[in-house]
Amino acid sequence: xxxxxxxxxxxxxxxxxxxxxxxxxxxxxxxxxxxxxxxxxxxxxxxxxxxxxxxxxxxxxxxxxxxxxxxxxxxxxxxxxxxxxxxxxxxxxxxxxxxxxxxxxxxxxxxxxxxxxxxxxxxxxxxxxxxxxxxxxxxxxxxxxxxxxxxxxxxxxxxxxxxxxxxxxxxxxxxxxxxxxxxxxxxxxxxxxxxxxxxxxxxxxxxxxxxxxxxxxxxxxxxxxxxxxxxxxxxxxxxxxxxxxxxxxxxxxxxxxxxxxxxx
Length: 264
Prior knowledge:
Elements: H1 4-40, H2 47-76, H3 78-81, H4 87-117, H5 121-137, H6 144-183, H7 186-219, H8 221-224, H9 230-258
């Protein structure tokens, strides 16, 4: 049997290649935009950093979409499904390799932010200090460091939970659709797919409202720095996302084992 580490490395390589292609376009866009602003004579202050951060949002979105496509290909590809590894390991390694790709993108985006910050570092330091000072003045000063630590940890856990849950949901929908296509007559496929889409839309709207409420609390950092009991609610909400991702992943692994056929 192929080890979990080996299959993760094998699945991570194409995902890293995807991220590298995104980074090439990202860097070119940043450089060209900055040069254009210089040409117009409008570049000032923290504009380079803002340009970098703006393009990073596009890069994250593109990475999520392209990595999702790559991950779904793994589940129906003979090249991967014939690897001597259990479906549980294949599914888990696929998710982990996707997270590695997103982490790689995050680290490179942080590097680009630091590089563009260097173009006007004193101004950025000044504005950062002002933001921290304003937050401190409106916070529970006795617990400022503790609350800041909880906010950073919570933000990281929430980002990972949202990505995992979205990928788990996409995979479950894709595998259910694949199973229906493989085992149902053409006439019934359309009906069951319609029902599936309705359920997905309703579930997505419910989950979106929950996520928006949770993020709404999180983005109000003045409240975070003054309401210690909020963290219990916040981390319980994050735990709910992980449990949902685990349940959906278990369902996807079951489909992989018993229903999903490869397409090539």
